[in-house]
From TrEMBL:
The lineage of its organism: Bacteria, Bacillati, Bacillota, Clostridia, Eubacteriales. Gene3D superfamilies: 3.40.50.2020. This is Hypoxanthine phosphoribosyltransferase. Its main location: cytoplasm. It comes from Garciella nitratireducens DSM 15102. It catalyses: GMP + diphosphate = guanine + 5-phospho-alpha-D-ribose 1-diphosphate; IMP + diphosphate = hypoxanthine + 5-phospho-alpha-D-ribose 1-diphosphate. PANTHER family: HYPOXANTHINE PHOSPHORIBOSYLTRANSFERASE, HYPOXANTHINE-GUANINE PHOSPHORIBOSYLTRANSFERASE. GO terms for biological process: GMP salvage; guanine salvage; hypoxanthine metabolic process; IMP salvage; purine ribonucleoside salvage. Belongs to the purine/pyrimidine phosphoribosyltransferase family.
Length: 184
């Protein structure tokens, strides 16, 4: 049974559905990265729960690194300015990168990040996102692995926040409008 948070309007994707899709993604990635030099790049903070579960379902050798990016701050709309809060520690030259994201909304974060990392001489670069909002994808970046399509509503849980809260919910839910109406 899912325990609802009082600020969540409805559960979009429950824990069981999340975990079974992540297993499938892990299988697909394992197949594609045999005999490669896989480096998972977690985009903090939102992707941290997804990355932890995904990595455990990938059956080929891999390394992990973390990058912190911020463009939403305490709002439900992208500021349009992508800020690097923490850069990678690993040299990525000649390596097979897989960027792991929680959500592609406007697409601004990923288009900025993939251009930046491509410029550092990687051998290959692919993108894996748990969620995608097709209605708002303003950029034309290619996403190689998508967990779920979600409608154009502000979602929280399983890593995704509003004003830093709700990241610990074990499901993806839609936030009640009244929670953010006064602040946006
Ligand atoms: O496609 P976009 O419109 O760019 O939005 C997606 C990005 O926005 C969120 O990050 P946020 O700036 O909230 O940082 P966080 O991961 O620390 O919450 C989310 O985790 C993605 O990284
Ligand atoms: O719908 C969302 N929820 C949480 N964080 C986000 N960052 C971009 N879109 C979203
Ligand atoms: Mg956020």
């Amino acid at each position: 049974m899912t325990i609802m948070n009082k600020d969540v309007k409805k559960v979009l994707i429950d824990q069981e559905t999340l975990q079974s899709r992540i297993k499938e993604l892990g299988k697909e990635i394992s197949k594609d990265y045999i005999a490669k030099d896989l480096l998972l790049i977690c985009v903090l903070k939102g992707a941290v729960l997804f990355m932890a579960d995904l990595a455990q379902n990938i059956e080929v050798p891999l390394e992990m690194d973390f990058m912190a990016i911020s463009s939403y701050g305490n709002s439900t709309e992208s500021s349009g300015v992508v800020r690097i809060v923490k850069d990678l520690e690993t040299s990525i030259e000649g390596r097979d990168l897989l960027i792991v994201e929680d959500i592609v909304d406007s697409g601004l974060t990923l288009s900025y990040l993939s251009e930046l990392l491509k410029g550092r001489g990687v051998r290959s670069l692919k993108i894996c996102t748990l969620l995608e909002k097709p209605a708002r994808k303003a950029t034309d970046i290619t996403i190689d692995y998508v967990g779920f399509q979600v409608p154009d509503e502000f979602v929280v849980g399983y890593g995704l926040d509003y004003a830093e809260k709700y990241r610990n919910l074990p499901y993806i839910g839609v936030l009640k409008e009244e929670v953010y109406q006064q602040n946006n």
